[in-house]
Design brief:
Layout lengths: L1 H35 L2 H9 L1 H22 L3 H33 L6 H27 L8 H25 L4 H33 L7
Helix pairs in contact: 1-2, 1-3, 1-4, 1-5, 2-4, 3-4, 4-7, 5-6, 5-7, 6-7
Keywords: Cytoplasm, Phosphate transport, Transport
Organism: Methanochimaera problematica
Main location: cytoplasm
């Protein structure tokens, strides 16, 4: 019974890692689409929402089944709690990637390259945060996790900068308003992804160390 439980738990971990990579790729590809205004790629990302939902449902059902069947305790319950949070967070990451892709589909070619570049830098930060969190889960090492707070500060600063630039362009010409509102929306989606990366890092730290920390 004990061996079977850990075999199924290891399988569940692999599913979460697979989902994490899928969600990160959705976000990464949506940002590539934004940078190049590639509407075909944006549409491809948008259509991945069904597979994302399948991952979420499958992991949720398997997590509940393992909890009910084996009633784990101590370190094992921390692992399952972590998996449950990661399932929710990576689902949200993918959904935010889908939302960015949807905005790209409606955007006209952007003349505001400074803002696009800032959004891409912001995206690079949150993707780095997600990868560090996922690496911590895979390796069960916590050395990179607390560094996410510094990257999150960078994300927050970039979001503020994008907001200021967007307001400036809107004041210059009312024709810029709709596009700049969408830039602000993209930055908001990315900021939420950064929050989910921090939340996962907290759960992973607790899973490994048995201690709670706050990363923000």
């Amino acid at each position: 019974m004990h061996d079977k439980f850990h075999e199924e738990l290891d399988s569940l971990k692999k599913e979460v890692i697979e989902m994490g990579n899928f969600s990160i790729e959705m976000l990464s590809d949506s940002l590539k689409a934004l940078k190049s205004m590639d509407k075909e790629l944006a549409e491809d990302v948008y259509l991945r929402k069904e597979k994302l939902s399948d991952y979420y449902t499958q992991i949720e059902e398997e997590t509940l089944r393992i909890l009910a069947l084996y009633q784990p305790v101590a370190a094992d319950i921390r692992t399952i709690t972590c998996i449950s949070q990661m399932n929710v967070s990576f689902y949200r990451v993918g959904r935010n990637g889908k939302k960015v892709a949807k905005l790209v589909k409606s955007l006209e070619f952007s003349k505001h390259l400074e803002i696009i570049n800032s959004l891409c830098r912001m995206g690079k930060c949150v993707i780095s945060m997600l990868n560090d969190a996922l690496d911590g889960f895979k390796s069960e090492k916590t050395d990179k996790l607390q560094n996410l707070s510094y990257l999150d500060d960078d994300v927050d600063n970039l979001q503020k900068s994008i907001f200021r630039e967007s307001i400036s362009y809107m004041m210059e010409d009312k024709k810029n308003i709709s596009g700049c509102i969408e830039y602000v929306m993209v930055s908001s989606h990315l900021e939420r992804v950064g929050d989910h990366a921090c939340l996962m890092a907290e759960k992973i730290y607790f899973m490994v160390e048995g201690k709670r920390i706050e990363i923000k």
